[in-house]
Automatic annotation (TrEMBL), chain A:
<dbReference type="InterPro" id="IPR059120">
    <property type="entry name" value="Cullin-like_AB"/>
</dbReference>
<dbReference type="InterPro" id="IPR001373">
    <property type="entry name" value="Cullin_N"/>
</dbReference>
<dbReference type="InterPro" id="IPR045093">
    <property type="entry name" value="Cullin"/>
</dbReference>
<dbReference type="InterPro" id="IPR036317">
    <property type="entry name" value="Cullin_homology_sf"/>
</dbReference>
<feature type="domain" description="Cullin family profile">
    <location>
        <begin position="376"/>
        <end position="604"/>
    </location>
</feature>
<dbReference type="GO" id="GO:0031625">
    <property type="term" value="F:ubiquitin protein ligase binding"/>
</dbReference>
<dbReference type="InterPro" id="IPR019559">
    <property type="entry name" value="Cullin_neddylation_domain"/>
</dbReference>
<dbReference type="InterPro" id="IPR036388">
    <property type="entry name" value="WH-like_DNA-bd_sf"/>
</dbReference>
<dbReference type="GO" id="GO:0006511">
    <property type="term" value="P:ubiquitin-dependent protein catabolic process"/>
</dbReference>
Automatic annotation (TrEMBL), chain B:
<dbReference type="GO" id="GO:0031624">
    <property type="term" value="F:ubiquitin conjugating enzyme binding"/>
</dbReference>
<dbReference type="GO" id="GO:0097602">
    <property type="term" value="F:cullin family protein binding"/>
</dbReference>
<feature type="region of interest" description="Disordered">
    <location>
        <begin position="1"/>
        <end position="22"/>
    </location>
</feature>
<dbReference type="Pfam" id="PF03556">
    <property type="entry name" value="Cullin_binding"/>
</dbReference>
<feature type="compositionally biased region" description="Low complexity">
    <location>
        <begin position="7"/>
        <end position="22"/>
    </location>
</feature>
<protein>
    <recommendedName>
        <fullName>Defective in cullin neddylation protein</fullName>
    </recommendedName>
</protein>
<dbReference type="InterPro" id="IPR011992">
    <property type="entry name" value="EF-hand-dom_pair"/>
</dbReference>
<comment type="function">
    <text>Neddylation of cullins play an essential role in the regulation of SCF-type complexes activity.</text>
</comment>
<dbReference type="GO" id="GO:0032182">
    <property type="term" value="F:ubiquitin-like protein binding"/>
</dbReference>
Length: 735, 221
């Protein structure tokens, strides 16, 4: 080494350049030692061995390139031992078979551990370079090959395991700990061993078992009991897995149970006579329904099956409800019925169906479907509200009121013809306001707010106008009396409600002849009002007013009668005559015939309110009748109410008339929509116009495509639109 | 879109020769002469009476469709009247300046009208011709039926028969407008009759035709 070289060399110690051969005999001897050790280990005599010596022996063998011999020796030795063990296990009788196997397995593992420790150097250096299986794994594989897959053991093992499971399923108690050990053993041997030797056959056998059992149950059980049994089995299987099977088996076995017990019998269960889904719904069987829900949720199409059956049941039930002519005689009852149905099913969905949104939607769509089957639904809902606001909610707390109104709003949302509802609501509200018969102003206003939130300002602006009119009228009256009290003196006390024409439902005004006393004070009011509000026109609505009259009957009985304006006009006539014919009354009052007949009927033919006497005493009013002041009238009440302007279900002709008005009102709305759409799109085809118009108007009503077409043609005639010259399906907007 | 321009017949042009140039009057001499044969002496317009005479000279019936065709050729504005201007227009186009030439021109006119492009124009003209009042947009059903037979009777006889039958039997429509009139012609051309197989009421056919098809199908059963 040239110490003067530029690079400094590291000082090296080199190994022997010549091979050190181990004496082959030495190798053989060393192997024998190890072999003997393995024997001892397997014979549970390991305590006498020296770990250090054995380790060193193995180390030397590998070091001196005798790894092959060591390894193959190991294989041979282990194999020999395992074959012995196999025979031992095979010979075990009956129940002891598994125990023996388990015992031997534990032993083997212990042995393997020790062997691995001894041969650790080989495991780390020889094994990887020669691409051999590591010792531990080798030990497992050999166990698999020679024990588990031994022809006399393999089938027996499988059968034994499956038999135990079967017995447990039929009620026996088995040794779960042992089972666990065995299945764990199989898992340790490799998941394919576990799967092939146990899991697959287990699943197949289970499928058969449950297929049979489910068939048996379904023949003899009702739906509820069957579901209970299925749930029990399902829980049982899950518990089984947790106790002695591999966790990954859980999902597989549960899907077997689900398939066999539930999925395969879904239709039959749901439609079972007397106990199926529909019966559960009718009888509010929350537990059963809840169970069905959670079980069916596990299988494909399960929930949709329940949902579909529920939907068709609801639709049918609803359809029957809304077409039941008996029930339809009482609108308030009818709506209450609908509300009850809604409540009932809401409860079912929240209690048993976990508030599942898809079910809620199904419920909503069913209600929407059948409520609109009856085209009087809007009217009836308004009548229901009228009843509640008039008297039904008397004494209710604010929260109770809100609850009722919110529920009715839910029904309102289902209506397709909201504009019809609006018309009736307006009429009924008008009657309530004018007769002063509303339970609470707050409740009324709350309802308006809800309608406004739902439908927008347009819907409620007129309704709010009605309230404003009432308030303004109050103020006007106070002012009137303040200014005019001197002049009015002893005249009748007048209370006027001034209604703005646009806001209130249009009524055909039929003037009648007011009694002179009334006329005077009315005129005074008119003068006063027009003095402060020039440019306005006042028309007396004699068909909507009321009057309180003091009447003295025979024997000095005094009563205060609350009557309608028409009735007042009739009664006042009897101040100057004791008896009058129908024609005389008609002539004097000029009340229209239909109203007059109704009026006279309520004055003469109703028990307890017959302030007039009629000859002849028949129920109906004919033009030949004669009326007399009924001197003999008595009532235990001082104040007697005769005239009421209560909201009622419309008669057939009235209904036709209202509907016609609604149809008329819809025409300009449709036209406005068409023009709006065409103005922005310029050119559009027929079907698109129909779709757009429907969409725009759907919050109020559902327009009829034929009506839309007619409106389009009308617009063409009036030159708002034209047909495209080239493509006849298109319409063009004309500026 | 806009109807043809105002229908008040111009009377000024009727004054024989006073406003026209010498050259023009020479050209139209014979035509004008023929005009004066039928025109009313005071108003200088051919009125219904004059037309009746014209018809007998032509040896056609007053109600014959060829008179309508003649009116179309003249672009006559007012039903039952021909002005000098209109007369000149028509006869010049027909290259006729005598009665015999005019008679001969009629069959040619018939053929001309039958050409699809011309027929469409003629067809809509026929409708407008019947709108006698200012701002009138519809003709009553009775007249519409007659007009349909006159104008379409030869070409689409079966359809016209059925449609007029329907129109007479229903009471919803009392008049017909231009849109419906044109729609029917389209209907005859596009929809096979009596099968009506490709008629789709979802398309933009006028409602009156939807109702007609429904009525027709009902009656077939």
């Amino acid at each position: 080494m040239n110490s003067q070289s530029q690079r400094r060399k590291n000082f090296k110690i080199e190994a022997f350049k010549h091979k050190v051969e181990l004496d082959p005999k030495y190798a053989e001897r060393t192997w024998k030692v190890l072999e003997h050790a393995i024997h001892e280990i397997y014979n549970n005599n390991a305590s006498r061995l020296s770990f250090e010596e054995l380790y060193r022996s193995a180390y030397n063998m590998v070091l001196h390139k005798y790894g092959d011999k060591l390894y193959s020796g190991l294989v041979a030795t282990m194999t020999a031992h395992l074959n012995k063990i196999a025979k031992s296990v095979e010979s075990a009788q009956g129940g002891l078979f598994l125990e023996k196997l388990n015992h031997k397995w534990a032993d083997h593992n212990k042995a393997l551990q020790m062997i691995r420790d001894i041969l650790m150097y080989m495991d780390r250096s020889y094994v990887p370079t020669s691409h051999k299986t590591p010792v531990h794994e080798l030990g497992l594989n050999l166990w698999s090959d020679h024990i588990i897959h031994s022809p006399n053991i393999q089938a027996r093992l499988q059968d034994t395991l499956l038999d135990l499971v079967q017995r447990e399923r039929t009620g026996d108690v088995i040794n779960r700990g042992l089972m666990r050990n065995i299945t764990k053993m199989l898992m340790d041997l490799g998941s394919s061993v576990y799967q092939d030797d146990f899991e697959k056959p287990f699943l197949d056998v289970s499928a058969c078992f449950y297929s049979g059992e489910s068939q048996q149950f379904i023949e003899c059980c009702d739906c509820g009991s069957y579901l209970k049994k299925a749930e029990r089995r399902l829980n049982e299987e899950m518990e089984r897995v947790s106790h002695y099977l591999d966790a990954k088996t859980e999902v597989k076995i549960t899907s077997v149970v689900e398939r066999e017990m539930i999925a395969n019998h879904m239709q039959r269960l749901v439609h079972m006579d007397n106990s199926g889904l529909v019966n559960m719904l009718i009888d509010d069987k929350y537990d059963d329904l809840s169970r069905m829900y959670s079980l069916f949720k596990r299988v494909p199409e399960g929930l949709s099956t329940i949902r579909d059956v529920m939907t068709s049941y609801l639709r049918e039930r609803g359809r029957v409800l809304v077409t039941d002519t008996e029930r339809l005689k009482d609108p308030v009852e009818f709506v209450q019925c609908l509300l009850n149905e809604k409540d009932k099913h809401d409860k079912i969905i929240s209690t048993a169906f976990n508030n599942d949104k898809t079910f809620q939607n199904a419920l909503n769509s069913s209600f929407e479907y059948f409520i609109n089957l009856n085209n009087r639904s809007p009217e009836f809902i308004s009548l229901y509200l009228d009843d509640k606001l008039r008297k039904g909610l008397k004494g209710a707390s604010e929260e109770e009121v809100e609850v009722v109104l919110d529920k009715v709003m839910m029904l309102f949302r289902y209506l397709q013809e909201k504009d019809v509802f609006e018309k009736y609501y307006k009429q009924h509200l008008a009657k309530r306001l004018l007769s002063g018969k509303t339970v609470s102003d707050d409740a009324e206003r709350s309802m308006i707010v809800k309608l406004k939130t739902e439908c927008g300002y347009q819907f409620t602006s007129k309704l709010e106008g009605m309230f404003t009119d009432m308030k303004t009228s109050e103020d006007t009256m106070l002012d009137f009396y303040a200014k005019q009290s001197a002049e009015l003196g002893d005249g009748p006390t007048l209370a006027v409600q001034i209604l703005t024409t646009g806001s209130w439902p249009t009524q055909p005004t039929a003037a009648c002849n007011l009694p002179p006393e009334i006329l005077t004070v009315c005129e005074k009011f008119r003068t006063y009002y027009l003095g402060t509000h020039s440019g306005r026109r006042l028309t007396w609505q004699t068909n909507m007013g009321t009057a309180d009259i003091k009447a003295t009957f025979g024997k000095g009985h005094k009563h205060e009668l609350n009557v309608s304006t028409y009735q007042m006009c009739v009664l006042m006539l009897f101040n100057s005559a004791d008896g009058l014919t129908y024609r005389e009354i008609e002539q004097a009052t000029e009340v229209p015939a239909l109203d007059l007949k109704r009026c006279l009927q309520s004055l003469a033919c109703v028990k307890g309110k017959n302030v007039l006497r009629k000859e002849p005493m028949s129920k109906d009013i004919s033009e030949e009748d004669v009326f007399y002041f009924n001197d003999k009238f008595t009532s235990k009440f001082v104040k007697v109410k005769i005239g009421t302007v209560v909201a009622q279900k419309e008669s057939e002709p009235e209904k036709q008339e209202t509907r016609q008005r609604v149809e008329e009102d819809r025409k300009p709305q449709i036209e406005a929509a068409i023009v709006r759409i065409m103005k922005s799109r310029r050119v559009l085809d027929h079907n698109s116009i129909v779709a757009e118009v429907t969409k725009q108007l759907q919050s109020r009503f559902l327009p009829n495509p034929v009506v839309i077409k007619k409106r389009i043609e009308s617009l063409i005639e009036r030159e708002f639109l034209e047909r495209d010259k080239a493509d006849r399906k298109l319409y063009r907007y004309l500026a | 879109m806009r109807r043809s321009s105002n229908r008040k017949s111009s009377s000024a042009s009727a004054a024989a020769g006073s406003g026209s140039t010498k050259a023009a009057s020479k050209e139209f001499e014979k035509i004008d002469h023929l005009f004066n044969v039928y025109a009313d002496k005071s108003s200088a317009i051919i009125d219904p009476e004059g037309i009746e005479q014209l018809c007998s000279s032509l040896e056609v019936d007053y109600t014959d469709v060829r008179i309508l065709m003649l009116a179309w050729k003249m672009k006559a504005q007012k039903q039952g009247f021909f002005t000098l201007e209109e007369w000149r227009t028509g006869l010049k186009a027909l290259r006729a300046d005598s009665m015999s030439k005019l008679k001969k021109a009629l069959p040619e006119l018939d053929k001309e009208v039958s050409r699809p492009t011309d027929f469409l124009d003629f067809y809509s003209y026929a409708f407008r011709y019947c709108l006698t009042e200012d701002k009138q947009k519809c003709i009553d059903i009775e007249s519409a039926c007659q007009l349909l037979s006159l104008v379409l009777g030869t070409q689409f006889g079966p359809q016209v028969d059925k449609f007029t039958e329907y129109l007479k039997s229903q009471s919803e429509y009392k008049v017909m407008n231009m849109d419906q009139w044109m729609g029917f012609y389209r209907f005859c051309n596009e929809i096979p009759f009596p099968s009506l197989e490709n008629y789709d009421s979802d398309l933009a056919w006028p409602l009156i035709l939807d109702n007609f098809v429904e009525w027709f199908r009902e009656n077939q059963k």
